[in-house]
Amino acid sequence: MFQKNSIHRFKVESIEGREIDFVRFKGKKIMIVNVASECGYTSQYEQLQELYANFQDRLIIVGFPCNDFGAQEPGSHELIQQFCQKNYGVTFPLTKKITINSPAMHPVYKWLTSRAENGAFDSEVSWNFQKYLLDENGFLQKVFPPATLPIDPEILDWINS
Predict the structure, then answer these.
(1) Annotated catalytic residue: which of 32, 39, 133, 155?
(2) Across the chain, where does the E strand assignment appear?
(3) pTM higher than 0.70 for the full model?
(4) Is 84 labeled as catalytic in the residue annotation?
(5) Please, what is the average pLDDT of the chain?
(6) By C-alpha distance, which of 88, 155, 117 is closest to 10?
(7) What pLDDT, in 10s, does the model give residues 73-89?
């Protein structure tokens, strides 16, 4: 049985068409980031991959490609995956492309942005590369705006706490 306020109740489809079951990440901190290949913040993929490589024993990063902000993720799932591999060596999980800014908002993002769902706070996704941080039990703890770098000292302190 999962608590309503834990992300561990969700399953999503990976960019390769496999299931990503968040319950598998119990015991690890989770960073969720909406990503895009043609954004001014796209170079953050490099630091995201660095974090994942250095802390994958206690941190999982899940990238959610999204074309809602400036149409900056227009590619197919295959193109997104190739871009991330070729340019940044991404090995952390990516999902199928999702929608955030519409009535058809992806269920994980409905949960992330609604205090009634996540039990922590309301938020709004302002642009690509917004970072949501969840504790080892899948509870939402913090949200960082897109301009905050993945290796920001506050994020590193959170990972190491």
Answers:
(1) 39
(2) 11-13, 19-21, 29-35, 59-65, 131-134, 140-144
(3) yes
(4) no
(5) 96
(6) 117
(7) 999 999 999 999 999 99
